[in-house]
Structure formats: C-alpha cells, structure tokens
Amino acid sequence: MNIRTAAARLALAALAALACTGAAAQTIKIGFITSYSGLNGNLGPYMERAVRLYIKQHAKELPPGVKIELLPRDDTGPNPDKAKQLAQELIVRDKVDLLAGVIFTPNALAIAPLATEAKVPFVIMNAGTAVITTRSPYIARTSFTLWQSSYPLGQWAAKQFKTAYTLVSDFGPGWDSETAFAQAFEAAGGKVLAKVRVPLQNPDWAAYMQRVKDARPGCLMVFVPAGKTATAVMKNFSDLGLGQAGVKLIGPGDITTDEELPNMGDVALGVTTMFHYSAAADRPANKAFVAAWKKEYGANETPNFLSVGSWDGTAMIFEAIKQQGGKLDPDKTMEIFKNWKNPDSPRGPIAIDPETRDIVQPEYLREVRKVSGALANVEIETVSSAEKDPWKELQKKK
Ligand code: PHB
C-alpha cells in the first residue's frame, strides 16, 4: 500500500468515525452588526459583551459538537448603506445562519428586505422604532419600542403637569417618542406647547433649550439616542437654568442610560423616566447579571439597556439552537422565536408577542437618585407588567 492510499484510508476511517458518533462539529454563525465608531460608537461593545458573556455562561447547554461563531461588524453609526452592505456580505460571503444586533433604526430598516429575501432570521437587539418588525417576517425584537416607554410616560405626565414641550432627535425613534408621548398626554387632558425635532448629530442644544425656557412648560420630554448625546442634553438643560425656571426634565430611559450617569453628574438628579431596564434594579436575576458583568469586565463597568436587549436576544437564539439540535431551519427558528418567553430576565418577565414578533415587557417609572454615593435609575413604580407595543395595539383598533 503506498502512502497516498494509506492516507486516504485513514481520512475515510476518520470520517466514518465522525458519522457514527454523530459528533460532526456544527458551527452556528451569527452576523453581528452594531456601532463601534461614529455616533454612539461607544455603545457597540455593550451589546457584543452581553452576547459573549451569555455564550460563555451557557455554551455547555448547546447540543454536543455545536459551537457559535460571532462575526462582529461596525456599521459606523446611523448609516443604512453601510449596514446593508455588511448584511449582504454576511449573508452571501460568510453564509451566516442569523443576523443580530443593530443600534439604529435606519440600519435595521435597510437590512430588513435582505433578511426576507435570504430567509435569514434577524434578531433586533436595540433599534426601537415600532414599524421595524413589520418590515420582515424574519425579524424578532428583544429590545423595546419607543412607544412602550413614551406612551405610558405621557399618561403619567398628564397627572403631574398641565403643559409639556417635546424635543426629539429627527429620525424614526424620535418621531415615535414624540407621537406616543403627545397622544397619551393630550388624550389625558394635557397640552403640548411645541413639538420640536432636532438634527440627529450635533444640534445647537443651547439655542433649543433657550426656546424651551421661554415657553415655560411644566415638563420637557426629550428623546435622543442613548449615550453621549444624552449627557449633552443634561449639561445644556443645567447651564441654561431650566430646572430653576420650574421645568421638569422627563423622557424614555434613553436619556439617563446607566453607563452615562457618572458623566452626567448631579444635574441628572430627579430626572424622571419610563423604561424597561435599570442596572440598579434589585430583582435577583438583575443582580446576578450585573455581578457577572462586573466579574467579567471590571468592577467599574456596568451593563445598560443595550446589554440586556442583547443578553435576552442571545438567550432566545440559544433556545432555537437547542430545540433544533443545532441545525437551524429559518422558518422553524422564527416559530421558536415567536413563542419564546423568559419569566426571569434581568428586566423582569418578558415574552415575544407571536402576532407581531415584538417584545412584551414591564415598564417602570424611575427617578435618578443617589444610591451609596452614585447616581442610579431607581425604579419607583411598575406601571405595566406586560406592555405590548402600544402603536401596534392602537393600529389593530383602527
Ligand atoms: C434607534 O435608532 O432605534 C435608537 C437609537 C438609540 C436609542 C434608541 C433607539 O437610544
């Protein structure tokens, strides 16, 4: 027997052994698109770290021989062309089984038709404009919608203030936040004095805040993308003395995102928000999540709402992999996503609404307070234990 024949026999024997044990390695590829540069470039790692931490903690639950490969890509901020190009490459060249991630609505909307065409399930772990999930039957969302926070915020605010002023970033989630808040606030008898939309990048906050001050509303409702922009809002609100002028700053929790609180300083004290996640929540599942985060990434690090959307999204992906024994069929995956629930997420009980593929979750009224010397989003009331996206609920009634 010559060497080539011997080598070929060995290779065949190895293949046969693999076939017998059924242990052929199976790799599930997840194309992970988020922002590592540009506006909110600091937030991508909050998502990726959550996915990696979940995989690390739970890899042993995967069917034998199944591995997950994460393919992270930088969409460079709100940049739909770039996001589309990345998704295309991940689908065609890398042959990913799933797409996931995405901070910005325009990017999610650009990817949606590709998910449909290629039948690649797409797990949205942040982007929050209500309409996104209607753009592809292959989308499921584990984050939130701006309607979920801003609509109950408007209902609450109407009980506290006669007048409001809204200031939102001029793109999908800003329009949703403005409409949801104003609709709820006015239905409950409040009056919105002005609805102002500001450019997404580098607005002249001092000029906008001066106009708010002149209008003297009872409250100012702001939506800006979480992160550094929210800190700029706080600074200008404070510098122009709006608080002293009797204006109360409120908004969805994006404006007091947990990891920015130390950068905001005491001006954030008393800001009231509606949201689904606070790193300061004392639910045992959240305490365990925050402790695991600090153990893995450092005592001064904290997860935020982008982290919890990504953590729960990864849990949902695990369920699809486990139920299918590691071989993913896109339509079966979507069926599993539609029926996924977790009574014990760090944010409380959550589920996917099978009709809309959108998340159902609690909404908490929170206030920024000092806890053990540090600013925290303290949950003061659970206003809904299972909030469905109000926009979709209201559409059904039309
Ligand atoms: C979005 O683009 O949908 C978006 C971005 C940042 C947020 C919330 C929503 O904080």
List keywords for this structure.
alpha/beta, nine-stranded mixed β-sheet, globular, binds P-hydroxybenzoic acid, 14 strands, 398 residues, five-stranded parallel β-sheet, 42% helix
Report on this model:
- The protein has helices spanning 3-21, 44-58, 80-92, 105-118, 146-160, 172-187, 205-215, 228-239, 261-264, 284-297, 305-323, 330-338, 390-397, and strands spanning 26-34, 66-74, 98-101, 122-124, 139-141, 163-169, 191-198, 219-223, 248-252, 272-275, 341-345, 348-353, 358-371, 374-387.
- The strands form 2 sheets. Strands 6, 7, 8, 9, 10, 11, 12, 13 and 14 form a 9-stranded mixed beta sheet that branches. A 5-stranded parallel beta sheet has the order 2-1-3-4-5, with helices on both faces.
- It is built from 13 helices and 14 strands.
- The model is unreliable at 12-22 (pLDDT under 50).
- The longest helix has 19 residues, at 3-21.
- By secondary structure, it is an alpha/beta fold.
- The site of P-hydroxybenzoic acid has 10 residues, from loops.
- P-hydroxybenzoic acid (PHB) binds at residues 103-105, 127-129, 173, 225-226, 254.
